Automatic annotation (TrEMBL):
InterPro entries: Cu-oxidase_C, Cu_oxidase_Cu_BS, Cupredoxin, Integrin_alpha_N. This is Plastocyanin-like domain-containing protein. The keyword Metal-binding applies. Residues 2-97 form the Plastocyanin-like domain. It holds the Pfam family Cu-oxidase_2. Keywords: Metal-binding. It comes from the Bacteria. SUPFAM superfamilies: Cupredoxins (SSF49503), Integrin alpha N-terminal domain (SSF69318). The keyword Metal-binding applies.
Amino acid sequence: MITNLNNDEHPMHIHVNDFQVMEIVDPIAGTRTGVQPWGEDNVNVPAPVTDANENPLVPASVTLRTKFTEYTGTFVIHCHRLNHEDNGLMATVNVIPEVSTYAVAVPGSAGTPATVQVHDGNGDKVIAAVTPFPSFDGTPTVAMADVDGDMILDLVAGTGAGVAPEVVAYDGNDVGSGPFTAELTRFAPFDDGFRGGVTVAGADIDGNALADNIIAGTGPGTESQVKVFSSTLPTEKGAAPEVFSSFTPYPGSRSGVTVATGLVDAASGRASIVTAPGPGEAPRVKTFRYDLFEPTAAATADGTADEHAGHTGGPRMTSEFLAFDESYLGGVSLSTGWVAGAEGGAKSIVTGMLGGDGTVRVWSSGSRLDGEPDMYLESPNHHSGDVVFTQIASFAPFAGGPPGSGVEVATTSTTTGADLLVSGPGPGGTEVRKFGLNRAEPQSTTLVPLPLGALPALPAAQGSVPLGGR
Ligand SMILES: [Cu+2]
């Protein structure tokens, strides 16, 4: 239901999926409609009855229903009066898969290979247990992404340190033998001789809006590198997809790089790649974006293509900030998600200390917390360069545990935003705890955690384990 407490009418327009109008309440005309037996993508929300100072007395409203049948992902609903839209009457709709899932990496031990548990985001039960690398008994890395473009999250896993680098993706669709049994691709993302491990992520970077790109970052021992692989997977088993792009987020650094992905700023509508260096370096988080703009022939010819120089191809670094004190060198776990929920804005960046006391911090590029509208797209005449991230939450979910054991973080989408997942040292082994984030007081400008529950402890594991979600 869209309720109008403003002093004007607003023709609301949605992208991608049409809606059906169930009721329009117009208190000025004194009318209340029934159901419209057709779909459309635009409906006028009438104005409310107001007093002489335009304070609303009787609200107007429109009730809609819609079926998200064709795509998962993010699109907008906005007022179709451009001055209203440009001043913030716009919100994002995030369509999540029917079965939203998240992954918990379970480290191996001598003679026992590492496994990955995939949990149903709705109810948390384990729906698959995967052994991604049968001869690997270390700690794998995990991410959830729609690698094959079927609107169902797939599992991406990477090898940890000590073995030749390998990445594998499992189909989240039930192919008869169950979900997460069929391999979509398996390949070596870096040179066979590299032993520093691989961090993994997935997002739409190359412009194919249906299937996500697999993204891999190097562990320590070589100059840190991020590779974005083509969303077109090779049919040949064991062959790597073509490299769409690669870059060096921390030139000269050999500490490894952690990667996460998400729509963390509202300026472009594109997913960013978020990076942090591994242990041994200051916790400098960077965001990179591929805008993929191309100058038109006319702009190229008359030399007016300069305004967006740097937006073609990519990646372009859009922000840089310290997630923790510069003296903290323990490494950073990264994720992104709509953990600020009702506060709006783009996805937040979540950072977790891999060492230290396991402090978790949440970073936003703008939301109702700092007075921004729920979503704000820049006007056609204004293009700010960098994106600024502000800390909106900080807490230590495993405070009091063994010093230095740290945490790892992920998020999993809900119908109202996302929950925050944190792994760390519980009394009976590794625990994964789930949190929501809320304002303590209506006027608070930061968020506090609300514990939502915990998975059964993993008695064979100690400390934090890698998590993956979307
Ligand atoms: Cu409007």
